[in-house]
C-alpha cells in the first residue's frame, strides 16, 4: 500500500466500497457515528428504533413491536448484499441495457424499493411511499454513504409542487 500513489489508492478504495460495503462500513463505523445510533427513539416512534429524520415526511414508524427491521424477512430482502446486488443488476439492465452501478447509494435505493414492494405491493407510476425511519436507518447502516451524506426521501408530489 505504501507504494501506491493517491489516485491508485482512491481507485482501489472505490472498488472495495462497491464490492465489500459491509466490510468498509465496519471501518467507517470506527471513524463516524452510526446513523441513528445512540439517539433516543423519536416521539412518533412505536418500535423503539426510529430517529427524527431531516425531512418531516420521513418521520414515520413501522408501528410494530418488535421492529420490522428485526425480522428475518426484512434482513433477507433488504439487507442481504447478494440479493440486493442481483436485483439491482437486473433492474438496471432491464431499464438501460448497460452495466449496473454497484455503489452503496444504488444498494440503498434498491433496498428501499424491496421494502416498499414487500409491504405495499407494486404501487405504479408516481405513487410512492416513504419507508419508515427505522427501515431507512437499518439500510443506511448496512449500505453506508462513504461521506455520511444522504439524500432522503422525495415524494413525487414534492417534486412537482
In short, what is this structure?
This protein is mostly helical and 161 residues long. The protein has seven helices and no strands.
Task: Describe it.
This protein is mainly α and 161 residues long. 48% of the residues lie in helices and 0% in strands. It has one domain (6-156). It contains seven helices and no strands. α4 (81-96) crosses α5. The N and C termini lie far apart (51 Å). Residues 30-38 have low confidence and may be disordered.
Short key terms for the protein model shown above:
mainly alpha, 161 residues, globular, single chain
Give the assembly state of these chains: single chain
Helix content: 40-55%
For the CA atoms, what is the radius of gyration? 17 Å
Number of helices: 7
- Number of domains as seen in the coordinates: 1
N-to-C span: 51 Å
How big a fraction of the residues is strand? Answer: under 5%
Q: Name the helix and strand elements from N-terminus to C-terminus, one letter apiece.
A: HHHHHHH
Number of strands: 0
Given the helix and strand composition, which structural class is it?
mainly alpha
Describe the sheet with the most strands: none
Cα shape? globular
- Model regions low in confidence, pLDDT < 50 over at least 5 residues: 30-38
Mean pLDDT: 77
Amino acid at each position: 500500500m505504501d507504494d501506491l500513489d493517491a489516485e491508485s489508492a482512491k481507485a482501489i478504495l472505490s472498488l472495495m466500497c462497491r464490492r465489500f460495503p459491509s466490510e468498509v462500513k465496519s471501518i467507517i463505523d470506527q471513524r463516524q457515528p452510526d446513523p441513528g445510533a445512540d439517539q433516543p427513539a423519536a416521539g412518533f416512534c412505536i418500535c423503539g428504533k426510529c430517529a427524527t429524520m431531516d425531512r418531516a415526511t420521513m418521520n414515520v414508524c413501522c408501528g410494530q413491536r418488535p421492529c420490522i427491521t428485526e425480522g428475518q424477512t426484512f434482513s433477507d430482502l433488504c439487507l442481504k448484499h447478494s440479493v440486493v446486488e442481483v436485483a439491482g443488476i437486473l433492474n438496471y439492465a432491464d431499464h438501460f441495457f448497460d452495466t449496473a452501478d454497484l455503489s452503496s447509494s444504488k444498494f440503498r435505493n434498491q433496498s428501499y424499493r424491496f421494502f416498499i414492494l414487500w409491504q405495499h405491493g407494486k404501487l405504479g407510476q408516481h405513487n410512492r411511499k416513504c419507508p419508515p425511519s427505522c427501515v431507512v436507518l437499518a439500510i443506511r447502516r448496512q449500505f453506508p454513504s462513504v461521506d455520511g451524506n444522504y439524500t432522503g426521501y422525495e415524494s413525487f408530489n414534492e417534486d412537482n409542487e
